[in-house]
Amino acid sequence: MRVTISRKAHFNAAHRLHRKDWSFEKNDAVFGKCNNPNFHGHNYGLTVSVTGKIDPETGFVLDVKVLADIIREEVEIPFDHKNLNLDVPEFQDLNPTAENIAVVIWNKIRKRIQPEFDLEVVLNETDRNFVTYKGE
């Protein structure tokens, strides 16, 4: 019997969608207003889900407090109220699209979750736009 537990979190961050190897014109054509040289921000919503077998001793798949601490340490502290392009090392050479942010978050959390558990990250960039990543 496998069960999924989920924890929601949020963070506020600025970013700019921009490729350094493209001209301003090409960046503008592909990324539009998201290529604003002065950046723009989002109130990101995050749902992290862990699927696994219930531990017969604790009754937990994973203690939600443990998951909350991992999210706080790996995502909220390093990303909240930051400029992703300038302040977060993972995005120094990686365009911080919602897709790339979700993959980076998944990788950061994955290293802290036991391998027998499945991990899914859902990142809401807006109320209508979100990305789901479950690993490769």
> What is Rg?
17 Å
Report the β-strand fraction as a percent range. Answer: 25-35%
H/E element sequence: EHEHEHHEE
Strand order of the largest sheet: 3-1-2-4-5
Tell the overall outline: elongated
- The overall pLDDT average reads 97
EC number: 4.-.-.-
Family: Belongs to the PTPS family. QueD subfamily.
Pathway: Purine metabolism; 7-cyano-7-deazaguanine biosynthesis
Protein name: 6-carboxy-5,6,7,8-tetrahydropterin synthase
Task: Supply the key terms.
metal-binding, 6-PTP_synth/QueD, five-stranded mixed beta sheet, 6-carboxy-5,6,7,8-tetrahydropterin synthase, 6-PTP_synth/QueD_sf, elongated, alpha+beta, 136 residues, zinc
Topology diagram in text:
Elements: E1 2-15, H1 24-31, E2 40-53, H2 64-79, E3 82-83, H3 84-87, H4 98-110, E4 118-124, E5 130-133
Parallel strand pairs: 1-3
Antiparallel strand pairs: 1-2, 2-4, 4-5
Would you kindly provide a written description of the structure presented here, covering whatever features stand out?
This protein is of the alpha+beta class. The chain contains 4 helices and 5 strands. It has a 5-stranded mixed sheet with strand order 3-1-2-4-5. The protein is elongated. The model has no long low-confidence stretch (mean pLDDT 97).
How is this structure best summarized?
This protein has 136 residues and is an alpha+beta fold. 30% of the residues lie in helices and 30% in strands. Strand 4 (118-124) and strand 5 (130-133) form a beta hairpin.
